[in-house]
Design a protein that fits this description.
Layout: H1 8-12, H2 15-34, H3 39-59, H4 64-84, H5 92-110, H6 115-123, H7 134-164, H8 167-176, H9 179-196, H10 212-216
Helix pairs in contact: 2-3, 2-8, 2-9, 3-4, 5-7, 7-8, 7-9
InterPro entries: UCP010219
Protein name: DUF3159 domain-containing protein
Organism: Dactylosporangium darangshiense
Length: about 220
Amino acid sequence: MTREGESLRELLGGWQSAVETAVPVVAFAAGWLAGGRSIPLGAGVAVLAGAGVAAWRLAAGRRPIGTVVSLLVVCVGALVALRTGRAEDFFGVRVLTNAASALAWAASILVRWPFLGLVVGTVLGQKSRWRADPELLRAYQRASWVWVLQYVARLIVFVPLWWAGQVLWLAAAQTILTWPLVAACLAVSWWVLRRTLPEAHPGIRHPRVLQPQEQRG
């Protein structure tokens, strides 16, 4: 389907972005704990860590929009925790972003613009040509449900911990559910893609427009 050995993990990055996302979270928990449960210290360390990750991403030539959004999430979480005086509210923003992501991914599937297709199509330089291929569109729709389930799984863990004010458990859950969950999601969604596409399909790098007789078949 693609060149030998290639997968969604290789196309989309996977572990690097996931680890970078966890760094400010761990920094907040470490600062909060080292300062005797000091929210200002935890927030300050998290923002510094987030800025460091952003600088690293930009130096590595990563997409500036994604870098800015990631740093913004850290800064908003820090401000919310400082405002409410509840350390667990640093993670509240991540609860909201996961809920919004689950809804957005589900909506993209229902309107036949699955986000997985948009992301992979952009990485492969296809723009929206993949949508002209009914088989590839269907495969992206099915594989995108795996990503919806990923966000739902996070919410199932995060919401009770946030409600109970378990800061360290929230930090641990965020770290554990970052790379391992993303890795599993990439692997499963890749498997769904491969299983959904017919054997004769040329692969995600080669969208095709089916002939009328093929569509009827």
